[in-house]
Amino acid sequence: MRIHIIEDDLAVSDALATVLSVLGHAPLCYPDAESFLAEPAPDSEDLVIVDLGLPGIGGEEVVRRLELSEEPPRVIVISGHSKSKLERKLPQFASMTVLRKPLSFPALAEHLN
To answer: Where in this protein does the record say 4-aspartylphosphate is found (predicted)?
Structure first.
């Protein structure tokens, strides 16, 4: 499993990458959706951690594009908004894992497998 982190806040991205490295993963980090989408699509076994508040192409659009894949990867959405607010605004997030910032790394670790 490859883990892709799409996060424009370098401090958040770096912290995620550090924690995931300690847990035995080698995450790939992208500062924006455009650089992520320019790479080969993730496999169905992969995990994509995406911030909804990205500049340019937003996290919502990344999630929509991933959902259109033949075999979409697993997605964890990260956001400063509450899950209930996201569910009201974007019903498709109701079935996804949504982690609020600031992130709880034990909560993240729970969702890796």
So the answer is: 51
